[in-house]
Amino acid sequence: MAASLAAASGRAPLPRLFSRGILALVLGVYTIYQLGPFLWLATMSVRTTAEISADPYAWPSPMHLDQFRTAWVDSDFATYFWNSTMVVVGAVAVLTFIGAAAAHALARYRFRGNRIIYGILFSSIIFPPQITLISLYQILVDYNLYNSLFGLALVYISLQLPLTVYLLEGFFARIPQDLFDAAKMDGYGDLEIFWRIVLPVGMPAIATTLILNFIQLWNEFLFAVVLITDPDKRTLPIGIRAFMGDHFQDIGMIATGVMISVIPVIVVYVFFSEKLIRGMTAGAIK
Description:
Elements lengths: L1 H7 L5 H31 L4 H6 L11 H9 L2 H32 L5 H13 L6 H10 L6 H24 L4 H9 L4 H12 L1 H16 L3 H6 L8 H6 L9 H30 L6
């Protein structure tokens, strides 16, 4: 009776208001918990190491914005940024195209060895990629790709391709067969079906893998530090490591370098966040 009166008066019942308040409180606390480290990093990026050592949590006063210029120009972060951009953007573009094409073939066409190929790709996800480091090093040396940005991009593609195919195959398999039958009746070939149907319909899943691959490769350190030795070919994670010494660490410049490396990730997420959410929740609704 009380619920009906509350509904008639246009107000939500008290239990519902209470549950919404608890949910808002939890979301608020979680948001602060997630934003806290980022805001702390942002404040440290405009403070000197001496100021941070004196009081790690103090508000920057004054703000040393010149640290960004110092990192970008004097510490060659412009070169590191460009190297990371070339390697990661190129690798992600190839991963997206080849991964989508392979996933479509595995999900839609039945041929001998289909599930064997899928099983091999899936099994490669289980094992940690670090176990391939020595073999990849030897392969790059044999083919004169060691200490090469192109060789590093090939390594990144090989590392992320199985996961990309695995994620996209599960999404593409749920595309209704009626769409493909109608396209074939309209005279579309296999390539036209892929370009005009699979890619547009699968864009949420493709955006999801694009963001995941970009974040993973943009922050990748182990393979880059082993396979790249030339200072002019360093990527951003290796460049940040240059501020870390055996007896002294320039914490302020490390924070500045990390902020520079974080900005592209934020930009990519802002542009693709809506499609990312749609891709992550696509399998929950039928």
